[in-house]
Amino acid sequence: MTKPVDPSEKTFLARIEILNQRILEAKKHDLYPYMHSSDAVEGVHVTVHGRRMLQFASYSYLDLLGHPKINAAAKRAIDEFGTGTHGVRFLAGTTRIHVELEKKIASFKKTEAAVAVASGYGANFGTISALLGRHDVVISDKINHASIVDGCILSRAQFVRFEHNDMAALETALGEAPKKGTKLVVVDAVFSMDGDIINLPEVIKLCRKFKALLMIDEAHSLGVLGKKGHGLEEHFGIDPTEGLIDIRMGTLSKTIPSIGGYIAGSTKLVNYLRHSIRPFIFSAALPPPSAAAAKTAFEVIEDEPWRVEKLQKNADYFLKTLQARGFDTLKSQTAIVPIVIGNEAKALEMTRLTRNEGIFIVPILPPAVQPNTTRIRATVTAGHSLQEIDRAINTFEKIAKSLGILRP
Ligand SMILES: *Cc1c(COP(=O)(O)O)cnc(C)c1O
User: Fold this and answer.
1) pLDDT tens-digit map of 261-271
2) Is 188 in the pocket of ligand 1 (CB under 6 A)?
3) What is each CA distance from 46 to 51, 66, 224, 311, 381, in whole angstroms?
4) Which of 251, 138, 272, 136 is nearest to 189 (CA)?
5) pLDDT (tens digit, 9 = 90+) per residue, 191-250?
6) Domain end: 282, 303, 324, which one?
7) Measured from the CA of 260, which atom of ligand 1 is nearest?
8) What is the CATH number of the domain that holds 336?
9) Whether residue 85 has its Cβ less than 6 Å from ligand 1
10) What percent of the chain clears pLDDT 90, i.e. is strictly above it?
11) In this structure, are 86 and 149 located in the same domain?
12) φ, ψ at 324 (rounded to 5°)
């Protein structure tokens, strides 16, 4: 339908033609689900093509997008520094706000230091490719984010992928890695398509046993996991100051309603990265209003702990109710909830019908996931009320029954 054309197929021009035809065909049947622009965003409501819908596809897990304190901080930063910088962070683009943001990230993550990059994607691929070379090995979970995969490829290290969250497979991969050279294990904390949580205690044990470095991507665990939203280690009751995780990556574009990514860790690691992450050295700095918004968002998470509590209650209710109605939600334990449909045409039709009923969701199709796990992905936030969650679930149920996804 709308998936990219296999690059081994046809010529460059033919591939462009095929993809354009697929898009046209999907649009003709109102089955093209991507890049619909919203005209208004207020809390968990979004207006698309004149229809006001309940948003169930947001990454703003703590509903911080539009928070008055965060907006005010961004506006103040514009008055003070303008809308851009004098270039890249490495040369003339660092402002006081960038320095304050990095201090705030380090204190939130309880690390010695942090560096902020203008995108999470750049933080991941820039870090992995800066740390490893031809004589090293990188061991990556099979469903890690694309920004990790790209970093692994660009690093030219030996690239080993292990079965998703399978600790026996990780142990085998570590055992088979050459003794010489650096070994880096890299995993998502919460997996962006499945919503399940990495088995951190076991990963740490194996990294210690095989003397491997450990890098964690907290894009979907920051503000989501742990009693106070500090993330993966808080969830498992692991003390961050013990140094069991070497490299902590996170984004400023999801729970934190801004743009950018960070790496938190030891002062020496961060110093090294400031001199070697290519997107930090060769790509423009975070705009000051974005940096100020991000810094203030960390403060709001600490000042308003009810948001984390409410998100976790909502996620729990959403998951348990969907399961009770007979939906397959894989192993999700978080605010990201896959609803397995298993059939591409049905997933697209369910998306269309659900949006017509005023609930905004997205389909996840192959090759992003295995064809038999083609799914709708719904995310819940701290901004939803239980009534709104019920309304979404009732709509999913009605439509899934009408399409034969659930038994009537
Ligand atoms: C979104 C995401 C990123 C990239 O972050 P951006 O700030 O959007 O570039 C990296 N890793 C994971 C797991 C993500 O979900």
Assistant:
1) 999 999 999 99
2) yes
3) 8, 13, 22, 19, 14
4) 251
5) 999 999 999 999 999 999 999 999 999 999 999 999 999 999 999 999 999 999 999 999
6) 303
7) 7
8) 3.90.1150.10
9) no
10) 94
11) yes
12) -65, -30
